[in-house]
Amino acid sequence: MKVDIIGDVHGCLVECLALMEKLGYQKNGGHYDHPDQRQLIFLGDITDRGPDSLKTISLVYQLVFEDKLAHYIPGNHCNKLYRYFLGNKVKVQHGLETTVAELNALTKDEQRVIKKKFMALYEQAELYLQLPKINTIVAHAGIRPDYIGRYDKKVESFVLYGDVTGDRYPDG
Questions:
Q1: Under DSSP, is residue 32 helix (H, G, I), strand (E, B) or coil?
Q2: Burial of 59 (C-beta count, 10 Å sphere; 0-12/13-18/19+)
Q3: Which of 30, 37, 127, 135 is 20 to 30 A off residue 168, Cα-Cα?
Q4: Contact 137/128 with Cβ under 8 angstroms?
Q5: Is residue 70 within 8 Å of 63, Cβ to Cβ?
Q6: Which residues of the chain fall short of a pLDDT of 50?
Q7: Closest by Cα among 158, 133, 138 to 146
Q8: Cβ(115)–Cβ(58) under 8 Å?
Q9: Interhelix angle for 53-61 vs 96-104, to 10°?
Q10: How far is 127 from 112, CA to CA, in rounded Å?
Q11: Per-residue pLDDT tens digits for 117-152
């Protein structure tokens, strides 16, 4: 098993596609594949900050569900967008404002399509990915050894946000 792990795309679709091309992924007939049967792992934060969060969601959705070429593991920005789509009260800042601005520029039908794709990605994603064939565990913010094999709320918080202390940097 050979994998390529791409973390924190943050809506930078052009750069993501360039990296995929450099790694040997090819688009054939509208679908992606790799001549060496490599697998992609998108490791959190596919949205926010960059200019193409919604197109990045569509790309990752296609690679995971249609092309069956990729895995997706959520990150903290993904969790915030998920909570936003659920209608929870979240602060639209620290990058989320760019994704929300993209959403607001779409028709209601287009918004529903993007929301459906993202919700499917998020709800069907594992908190972290165990790859025993290559003796690897993939988690967005890391994972403690004693958390491996667990999937409770404490583990969820850790793999999405890291070891939260409550302290904040000046930028949030």
A1: strand
A2: buried
A3: 127
A4: yes
A5: yes
A6: none
A7: 158
A8: no
A9: 90
A10: 25
A11: 999 999 999 999 999 999 999 999 999 999 999 999
